[in-house]
Structure formats: C-alpha cells, structure tokens
Amino acid sequence: MYDYIANMDIQRTIPIILDRNDLVNNTVIEFNRYQHVISSVGFNHGNPLRALELHHAVYYQTPTALTSQMRCSAIRATASAYASAKSNKKPAKRPFVFHNPTALFLYSKDFSFRRDGSLSISTLKGRQKIGWKIPEPFRKDFDIARDTKNINSLRIAHGKAFLCITLEVPEPKGVVPVGIDLGVNNALVASVKEKTLFVSGKSLAIRNTKTRKLRSRLQSKLAGKKAQRRDTRSVRRALKRLSRKQHNRNKTFCRETAAQLCKWVPEHAVLVFEDLHFKPKSKKEHIRKGTRRRLNSWFFNLMIASVRNRAERDGLDLAFVNPAYTSQICSHCGLLGIRKGHKFTCPHCGCVAHADVNASHNIRLRFTVLRGSGPLSIGPEALPPGQGKPTDLSVGS
User: Fold this and answer.
1) Which sequence spans correspond to the domains of the chain?
2) Deepest of 38, 40, 68, 199, by most Cβ within 10 A of its Cβ?
C-alpha cells in the first residue's frame, strides 16, 4: 500500500471483468431503453431541461422496471448529455439517440463488494451476487481505493465494466529535473546527470508502416469499388478496424513507456519536455512527403498525456521549455555543434555523444538555468510590470 502524505485527489477509471449474468445485461438494456424514452422530453424542443426539471417531468409519468436509484441515475445521465453538448458549443438539434447500451451503478447504493469475494449488484429482480476480477496492473490502485472507500461508480458499456475510483497522491515537489527528448526512432530518451533511459520506437514504427501500406491498398480498392458503384461496406469496415488497432497499439505503447519512465526517475523528479506546439504550416510551404508523413504519424500529444496521467498518480511534476537549438548545441560547452543522424560532435570542445542524449541534457540544463533565474510561477505576480506571459517556460502538474 502507498504511503501517502498529502490530500491531492485524482480520479482514475479501471476495468473490471464481470462474470456473464443475463439479469445484469437485461438491466443495462432497460437502463438504455429508459434513456431513449425520456430523451425527447429532456430535449424540450431545443431547450434542454436540467436534471431536476427532467426528474419532475418523467419520474412518475414514465414507467420502468429500474430501481428508484437507477431511475434517478438515468435521468441525470440524460440531462448531463444535453448539458455537455451545450458546453462544448455543439447544442443538440434533435433528441439524442443512445445507441450503445450503457448503465451507471453507484457504489454502495447499486453495487458493493462482499467479503466472500463476490459483487452484489442491483438488477431488475433485486440484488444479485456475481463473480468479478481485476487485471493485475490495476490491482494496487483498486486496493488503495477500496481501503479508503474512494470507489465512486461502476459503468457497464459494450458488455465491459469500468470502475471509477479516487486516489490520494502526494503533492509534486519537483526537485530533481529530468530532461526528456521525444522522437520518432528513439521514442523517448531521458537523462538525469549520468543516468540515461532509452525507449526505442523502431518496432512500433515498423508495425505502423505495415498498417499504413495495407491501408493504402484498401483505399485504392475502395476507390475502385466506388467508381464501379459496388458495395463498399466490407472495405470500410476493414479500414476502420485497421485504424482502431493502430490507435490502440500506439496508446498501449505510450502508457507502457510512461509507466517505465515514472518508475525509472528518482524521487521528487520534475519531468522536463520540449514545448513542441507549433503554429500550423502554410499549405503553400513545401514539405517533403516522407517528412510530412513522419510528422503526422508522430503521437507527441498522446505520449505527453500518458506521461501526465502516470506522473499525477506517482506525485511527479511536469515542465516545458523552449525547444530552440536543443539538438544542435553542445551540452558541455553550449556552442553549436554538428549533428549527423544519431551522432553529435562538438568541434569546439571535442565532445562526442548520442544526439538524443545530448538533446535531453540540454533540455534538463535549460530548465535548471531558467529555474535558477526567476520564480516558477507564470502568474502576473511573477512578471515584471508591463510584460505578458513568458514564452520560455510553462510549468504544469
């Protein structure tokens, strides 16, 4: 069990595997049917009702076999769908249709874990005890949430169950900087003083290249069928399946890399990345096809999101620095060197190093210098009068 000191809370969703039970499946189907029925009432001719208003409008008027608590959950979930669409500036233009059967069970009210190892869950015919298990990588988090009674809800969707839990993690201190260089061939290179961590992305790139070539052949086949006005359903399904597999492959790789990184770094580390959010290139600017393809297939944002999620759980801090010349200057003398592929050579001090390792050291040193030259805060109180937001450093947790 973790030795937590602070009271910083984060929410995580972990999968659990339930034994097949027809009553639970029927409950999910009824939950979805009830949402379908009350959706038109919640739409209210383009002026969606709030949760309490929808409750008063349908609770007694619309019959259902759901329990009282689950009926309230379905009403809140329906009203929240319309509220989320409005907050995302995409208000509903017609009543929502909930295609995927999904049901929400609240902890201790609709389900609970029993001492005999079973799960007690509400169904259309009362409480039922069913078996369950959790994948081993999520066992530790689940035990912490269960001991501290920070389990929130159970959502069953697409026949799979997902448990929402709250973890208490320590506030990040961010003492030891770790420079991290992200790339295509070497997916991640992290350096802290004399230690270096390499994570190669070569095998993943090879698999993604095979997927890209297969997708290209399928797209050519799709274009031929369209020209002949033939059915294209099977080809479109194959393309969607390929895209889904590649996305899941990249996501799994990023999560595994993030876990490996957070286990490798020292205690109270701050993970320093390059701020690689550039302005979009002009369409008139010529970029070679191979370069454009490599940039479009690079999952930088997915890697950052995976590291951020893992770092929050492990109590680590994140920071970003200006990426200018981090791969071209020498980490020993600070002068411009020569980079050829993975080799970096400095003609001034004679330093020879791996280019990505040199870049990771520059990222770490740039953060260290900036941290020593001024406060970390990016708020107005940390800026001289008349200056705007600094561009060199942005710190997040």
Assistant:
1) 8-169, 176-203+253-396
2) 38
Candidates 322, 185, 218, 199; CA nearest to 264 is 199
Q: Residue 292's Cα: distance from chain center in Å?
A: 25
- Give the span between the Cα atoms of 69 and 396, in whole angstroms: 39
Residue in the structure block whose two tokens are 């550039």:
278
CA 93: distance to chain centroid? 29
Q: Are 162 and 104 in contact (CB under 8 A)?
A: no
Residue carrying structure tokens 């580390």: 269
- The structure tokens listed for 344 are 């970096």
Which residues touch 172 (CB under 8 Å, ≥6 apart)? 268, 270, 311, 315, 316, 317, 397
Of the candidates 170, 180, 110, 199, the residue with the CA atom closest to the CA atom of residue 315: 170
Strand 343-345, strand 352-354: pairing: antiparallel
User: Can you tell me which residue has the tokens 């020498």?
Assistant: 330
Give the closest residue to 71 by CA, choosing from 83, 54, 79, 59. 59
Contact present, 105 and 153 (Cβ < 8 Å): yes
Digit-by-digit pLDDT tens for the chain (397 residues) are 333 334 467 888 999 999 999 999 999 999 999 999 999 999 999 999 999 999 999 999 999 999 999 999 999 999 999 999 999 999 999 999 998 899 999 999 999 999 999 999 999 999 999 999 999 988 988 988 888 889 999 999 988 999 999 888 778 888 899 999 998 778 999 999 888 999 998 899 889 889 989 999 999 999 998 898 888 899 999 999 999 999 999 999 999 999 999 999 998 899 999 988 766 556 666 767 766 666 666 788 899 999 998 998 888 999 999 888 888 899 888 889 998 888 999 998 888 999 999 999 999 999 988 776 654 444 444 445 554 444 444 333 3
Q: Is residue 45 helix, strand or coil?
A: helix
CATH number corresponding to 176-203+253-396 = 3.30.420
Distance, CA of 56 to CA of 42 (rounded, Å): 11
CB 74 within 8 A of CB 66: yes
- Measured in residues, the chain has a length of 397
